[in-house]
Amino acid sequence: MTAGGGVDEPGARTSTLVILGASGDLTARLLLPGLGTLLAGQPEREVTIIGADREPMETSAWRELVRSALTSTGCPGEVAAETADRAAWQTVDLLDEESLRGLLGAIGGPAVLYFAVPPRIAQGACELLARIGLPSGIRLGLEKPFGTDGASAKAFNELLHGFVAEERVFRVDHFLGTSTVLNVLGFRFANRVWRPVWNADNIERIDVIFDETLALEGRAGYYDTAGALVDMIQSHLLLVMAVTMMEEPARIDATELRDHLAHVVRATRIWADEPATASRRARYTAGRIGERNVPDYVDEPDVDPGNATETLAELTVEVRNAHWAGVPVTLRSGKALGADRHQIMITFRPVAHLPEGLGADQVAIPNQLVLDLGPDRVALEITTNGADDWRDIEATTMSAALGPGAMEPYGQILAGMLDGDPLLSVRGDISEECWRIIDPVRRAWQANETPLETYPAGSDGPASWPRARQWASVD
Ligand SMILES: NC(=O)C1=CN([C@@H]2O[C@H](COP(=O)(O)OP(=O)(O)OC[C@H]3O[C@@H](n4cnc5c(N)ncnc54)[C@H](OP(=O)(O)O)[C@@H]3O)[C@@H](O)[C@H]2O)C=CC1
Ligand SMILES: O=C1O[C@H](COP(=O)(O)O)[C@@H](O)[C@H](O)[C@H]1O
């Protein structure tokens, strides 16, 4: 097995990526295809990919898996072939100390160890690494979920910090690598028009929505104990919120950006400090989405009907600082819904007053700004004079497509890891803060203080939830 080097030299384009759990779903579906988009745009990179898993795999089979996954997302054939030819396989049991030592010895140089394994295995392997010691030049890529609650995330951080510097730990949240989240930075900070109005004086509410038509898709092993709150709100949506509401960083680097994200999550509190009433939860029952019949969630393969798993979660929080106090921020995500709706929605306060003779008998219409999280688009609903009667007022939508980004989110995340730039990885304190926000909600749900409602697959969620009113207008 050969080891690439150089991940430590700034700007180096030669690096070694060791994928632990290389026979798994994440590797085949997201990691390698993401890397393919990175190599498509930056073909000069020489990445040596070492696949590692507990079952042996022929090197030729691993190389073919690498080659086809890279080309599936547009990596040129010759770059994929060269990368595949460098790839190697290592059979390892990550929970066996000797086996893990053997892997580290075989890598023999700087590398990224990417844990594409279940969280229990990643944590167990890190406990062994704490004993063995981490060879210099190694970085760790850790998938979500990071811990299972605030206490376990804190303990995991303490374990890691005992043997590796925080700058070498890359906690993955692929939403930070999505083009729209990156686009929010330019949209917010490079436009003069938003700066004076981006605060509680002018903004009435914020909604971050990630509704999916996808149902469980065979992921009960993970999802049935996580649920929508942990799967989407604890990690992704709180960070999307933080990017939307943070102050302007002095520069876009890992320290500044993450300090600013941390300021937002540290100031975030559950609305009215009432977890039971600031949240809602529901689970899908049988229904139809387009041409698909979706079974009742509890009839999905491997679901434990005894788990009160929610497939739709909503949580309202407040960022309690001088800029945002009093503005409700609702985070919502669910599966098996009628439409994919991935949006940050900013609802402005209506004008305080309309001149007499304009919009007679009409109430002022609040401006609404929607940043679509794919396909990337921005839409602003403004108020204009009526088309038929200029004395009326009516809403009109202006919209524009945003750049789709040069690569898939996992390509962006891997680029940061390979280059040693933690800009888009979740810092340890931020991860703990996100758990601190949702832990009381989980406790309230476990105590049954918030009812577990139902909705038919393919619907908009429980009929009683007041959602259509809020964002029907910008479609
Ligand atoms: N799949 C996805 O869409 C996403 C996954 N993630 C995260 O990525 C991680 C991996 O998920 P996923 O790929 O779906 O999981 P899989 O179960 O598909 O893959 C995990 C792999 O790890 C191997 N493994 C388990 N135990 C050991 C061990 N002791 N030593 C070496 N290898 C081991 C498994 O082998 P075996 O089969 O023999 O057990 C399997 O090949 C999880 O943390 C998940 O939360 C995050 C976002 C999306
Ligand atoms: O991390 C996750 O994200 C996906 C949604 O993100 P996408 O980039 O795949 O659209 C979600 O479906 C999944 O449940 C969650 O684990």
Automatic annotation (TrEMBL):
Gene3D superfamilies the UniProt entry points to: Dihydrodipicolinate Reductase, domain 2 (3.30.360.10), NAD(P)-binding Rossmann-like Domain (3.40.50.720)
Domain Glucose-6-phosphate dehydrogenase NAD-binding: start-end pairs: 18-183
Entry's EC annotation: 1.1.1.363, 1.1.1.49
Region annotated Disordered, chain positions: 452-475
Annotated metabolic or biological route of this protein: Carbohydrate degradation; pentose phosphate pathway; D-ribulose 5-phosphate from D-glucose 6-phosphate (oxidative stage): step 1/3
SUPFAM superfamilies membership: Glyceraldehyde-3-phosphate dehydrogenase-like, C-terminal domain, NAD(P)-binding Rossmann-fold domains
Keyword S-adenosyl-L-methionine on entry: no
Keywords associated with the record: Carbohydrate metabolism, Glucose metabolism, NADP, Oxidoreductase
Record GO terms (molecular function): glucose-6-phosphate dehydrogenase activity; NADP binding
GO cellular component: cytosol
Stored PANTHER family: GLUCOSE-6-PHOSPHATE 1-DEHYDROGENASE (PTHR23429:SF0), GLUCOSE-6-PHOSPHATE 1-DEHYDROGENASE G6PD (PTHR23429)
Name of the featured protein: Glucose-6-phosphate 1-dehydrogenase
Organism: Naumannella cuiyingiana
